[in-house]
Amino acid sequence: MKSSHEASLKRGEAIPLAIALASAGIALSGQWFWISIYFGFFTLRDSLSGIAVFAGLIGYAAYLLQLWAGRKAKAVLRLTLLLALMYLVSQIVKGYFDTEEMASAIKVLLLVVSMALAAWTGLKWSEGTWSNFIRASIAACLIFTVSFPLIGWATRINVKPVFNLGFLKEQAGIPKNVLMLLLDEMSPELADPVVQAVSSNLKYVQNSTIEAAGRSTANVIPAMLTGKRFDEVMPCGSTTICSRNASLDFSQLRMANETIDIIGFQQPYCAIQGMRSCQQQITQEHSIVRVLYDLVCNNLLSISECSFFMKKAFSRNGKVEETTKINQAVAVNQRLTQAILLAPFWNKGGTLYAHLFTPHPLGVISSQSLAEEYKQNMDQAAELVKGMVVQLRQRFGDEFIIVVTSDHPLRVDWWCRGPIYGGPDCAKGLPENKGRVPFIIGSPKKFEPVNVTSNLGLLVDMP
């Protein structure tokens, strides 16, 4: 029978490895945490609670396994720690070797070979080496966890006043009342309903296409606000987005004047200083089970796959509650539209910028194909634009101008790769993604053609 001294010594030996594995869990959750906070997927409280429970469960399980199975469990957990850290390192350097030209099979092979070599090396380590490695792992994981905001601060770029809409400044006698609508993920080849909503209600219209400054909203919005490309991005703070060589902190941006109202979602617009008013999509609170599921799922799978399995996991009796999901998406659009109509712009004039969810795909499993759903979304976007033109007429008469554009076109290849819309006919009836978006300007008054070729720097005055 073991003495209490031997038992307590065994407990003491189990603690460092348990702490190291919990620290690795925190480090692996770092990317998920900043994504959740930056895009508003979860509240700060929910995100911190999720990571605390996740890391706590890992550490406690590792501690109990060592007490129960002794050195066999300790050996397995040591290798688990080593492989977890190898995976973390692979994610850090991913951006530097993960290119379009490198085949997926080669990437997987490199990762598997690296982990196998690390495991083989770990098996030969002495107790002293493992003890030092565990202590170093705890420090490294904690340093990595706090490195995100530090990197954002160190690479922060100089910014200029934003939302001055310099592309309109050369116009003689242009109205001072400007409504700019950014409709998310709108392809020019399918935007005819939106064009018609403007041209059928206004005498003077310019309809053109411009180059998108990135593949997704997270790439394009920072590029529009700075005039610099943000092709590979990762949130690194609650209001900061990092690329390979630069970062943008929205809280460091300042409006060109105090007559600008902002409506938006999934971007920290309201952190910008000097605006007249701002309304963002409100982040909802969720149960700890849902937060944990999202944390684990996004650490193992892609966002689209995680979304698919989350819908399955949180449905009743195995059936996906698509009506609820669709209603939630519709509610977001309705809240953003209501926020537009309540903005001070309608009483005081000036500039109103609204980034709206529509015609972005809803991302729900339904009987509709991607093409059918997108056409329906585009029709809804057209109705919204038409309503805005009518409202502008009623409030400002002929003294206004409306700008309708988008961040990026429909990502047919991205949506068709995922489990929600994926299938042999997914891309049928949809245009190829050429990296261009509509750029529509309308006004009751005649204006000179506006020369814009890209949305890069569209919201900041370029030199």
Characterise the protein shown here.
Helix content is 51%, strand content 11%. It has helices at residues 4-28, 30-39, 44-69, 71-97, 104-123, 127-154, 192-199, 217-226, 288-300, 303-313, 322-341, 345-348, 370-396, 412-417; strands spanning 178-183, 204-211, 234-235, 240-242, 247-249, 260-264, 277-280, 351-356, 401-405, 436-443. Strands 2-10-9-1-8-6-7 form a 7-stranded mixed β-sheet, with helices on one face.
Globally, the shape reads elongated
Radius of gyration: 26 Å
Question: Helical amount among residues, as a percent range?
Answer: 40-55%
Number of helices: 14
Number of strands: 10
- Overall residue-averaged pLDDT value: 83
Distance between the termini: 80 Å
The strand line-up of the biggest sheet is 2-10-9-1-8-6-7
The low-confidence runs, each spanning 5 or more residues with pLDDT under 50, are 3-9, 95-103, 314-324
In summary, what is this structure?
The chain is of the alpha/beta class. Helix content is 51%, strand content 11%.
Topology at a glance:
Elements: H1 4-28, H2 30-39, H3 44-69, H4 71-97, H5 104-123, H6 127-154, E1 178-183, H7 192-199, E2 204-211, H8 217-226, E3 234-235, E4 240-242, E5 247-249, E6 260-264, E7 277-280, H9 288-300, H10 303-313, H11 322-341, H12 345-348, E8 351-356, H13 370-396, E9 401-405, H14 412-417, E10 436-443
Parallel strand pairs: 1-8, 1-9, 6-7, 6-8
Antiparallel strand pairs: 2-10, 3-4, 4-5, 9-10
Helix pairs in contact: 1-3, 1-4, 1-6, 3-4, 3-9, 4-5, 7-13, 9-10
